[in-house]
Specification:
Layout (H helix, E strand, L loop, with lengths): L5 H5 L8 E13 L3 E7 L7 E6 L15 E10 L6 E12 L14 H4 L3 H4 L3 H23 L3 E2 L5 E2 L24 H6 L8 E2 L4 H11 L1 E9 L12 E10 L3 H22 L1 H10 L4 H10 L3 E4 H10 L16 H12 L3 E4 L21 E6 L3 E8 L4 H10 L8 H8 L5 E7 H9 L19
Helix pairs in contact: 4-7, 4-8, 4-14, 7-9
């Protein structure tokens, strides 16, 4: 069906005083004695296009005015009454898809909680139009940054036989139905598709390290799955994961890459999404632009974990979770450090080894690892990062301490046997990045279909 995107009509004078054809959904409508007005949106822009209906040409415009109705509109594009606006004087209209009166999205402003109950329709609202437009720009910017910096894009397996994090929070994958006939778990899995336990990947890191040992600098960008029984505003069971791995890189090197990438993404959003940022600043986070500009204008803080604990212990704040050396920082701790102390993103480094993953490089003190989390105001952690343990004996000792099966990680261990090098990487949760640049506070509102405990609609 030939038509012109509404973003092109609103963004250029080239169509003024010309006959055009547009398609879209009715977002608002109003009627008067001689003229009716529609606001139509086709998804290509946050802004709506006004359609003017002369009742001398359309005796009964009511079929075109129901909210949610899909239309094809022909008419002349002219300057609107509002400065720098464009509207269409309709000469012919066609209903492509009727929409009855029980359409859930009416003129009143709906809560985000209500909109989560209709994920198949909420994308038609201004909020989700803006969110998914920003999500697209952020995703492209990630690829753009890595491609400009000689990283190779690799696709790591989604089906896996190993738990990267060693935390046992994997979704199991099976082709076998429930059957009392199997006497043991080993017998059950022996008869399954792969002949052994399999699950959905929690991370592409281990396979990413394999690729980096031959390609130097790689990144993965795909879905990860975690069967974590958590109902916080920051956790979902399926999320999109950006994971670079860099050979010949120590912790300071990967920290520099992470900061550069974050700033690149924010710069692209500010360049390409001005209308969306105006919307989010108005309805979600006052001072959003100032916050993002502050990130671009300042170097991120690098803070040792031990110093962070001392800051929190001296804080004149009663935290819900107690603070002591060896604890994992909670969201309230992360936000205090970023929002109250430094007012900018902070890399917290050198965490206790007992609260971090087995693969992180052990520091000479024997107590900490060369790891860092990037904490940002309003969200908390958005990046988990570390130098990887390149020493085979130390890696084996860490696995043994955690009771891990060496055989399941044979390929990974071989990387330490055959030409091991210092190497580092990080994981960025795409959704948390989108939360940060939009001010949207719940991760469920930046995914098309959020997967959470008890919900797989």
């Amino acid at each position: 069906m030939q038509h012109i995107d509404i973003c092109d009509i609103l963004g250029s004078d080239a169509y003024l005083d010309k006959e055009v054809v547009v398609c879209g959904w009715v977002r608002t409508s109003r009627d008067s004695k001689n003229v009716a007005f529609l606001e139509v949106n086709d998804g290509t822009t946050l802004k709506h296009l006004q359609v003017v209906i002369d009742k001398q040409k359309f005796a009964d415009p009511s079929p075109f005015m129901k909210l949610g109705t899909a239309l094809r509109v022909e008419g002349k594009a002219v300057k609107g009454m509002v400065q720098n606006s464009v509207e269409i004087n309709a000469s012919a209209m066609e209903v492509l898809g009727e929409c009855p009166g029980e359409y859930p999205l009416q003129k009143k402003r709906h809560t985000l909680e209500y909109l989560r109950t209709i994920p198949h329709l909420r994308v038609r609202t201004n909020t989700f139009n803006a969110i998914f437009r920003v999500r697209s720009v952020v995703s492209f910017a990630i690829h753009e940054y890595f491609q400009q910096n000689h990283f190779i894009y690799v696709h790591t397996p989604i089906l896996t036989g190993s738990d990267c994090e060693g935390a046992g929070e994997m979704f199991r994958v099976t082709t076998l139905g429930f059957d009392h006939g199997y006497k043991t778990e080993e017998e059950y899995f022996a008869n399954d598709f792969f002949g052994q336990p399999a699950g959905l990947s929690v991370s592409g890191q281990l396979e990413g390290e394999v690729a980096a040992m031959g390609l130097g600098k790689i990144y993965t960008f795909g879905p990860s799955f975690r069967a974590e029984n958590s109902n916080t505003p920051r956790h979902v069971a399926e999320f999109w994961h950006v994971e670079p791995e860099v050979a010949f890189a120590e912790l300071p090197d990967i920290i520099a890459i992470a900061e550069e990438m974050i700033k690149f993404i924010i710069r692209r959003v500010m360049e390409k999404c001005p209308s969306e940022l105006d919307f989010f600043e108005k309805f979600f986070e006052k001072g959003l632009r100032e916050k993002l500009q502050n990130v671009l204008d300042n170097e991120f803080k690098v803070l040792d974990y031990t110093e962070a604990i001392e800051i929190l212990q001296k804080a004149d704040v009663e935290f819900t979770y107690p603070v002591e050396w060896g604890c994992d920082l909670q969201t309230e701790h992360e936000r205090y450090i970023t929002e109250k102390v430094f007012n900018k993103p902070v890399f917290v480094t050198n965490y206790p080894k007992d609260i971090k993953a087995f693969y992180m490089k052990q520091n000479p003190d024997g107590k900490t690892v060369a790891a860092t989390d990037l904490l940002v105001p309003g969200v908390g952690e958005i990046i988990g990062c570390s130098e990887r343990e390149a020493d085979l004996d130390k890696l084996l000792a860490a696995m043994k301490q955690r009771g891990m099966d060496e055989a399941a990680y044979a390929d990974y261990l071989d990387l330490r046997r055959f030409g091991s090098v210092p190497h580092s990487g990080f994981g960025l949760g795409l959704e948390r990045m989108i939360m940060y640049v939009t001010g949207v506070s719940n991760i469920r509102d930046v995914l098309l279909y959020p997967r959470t405990v008890g919900n797989i609609r």
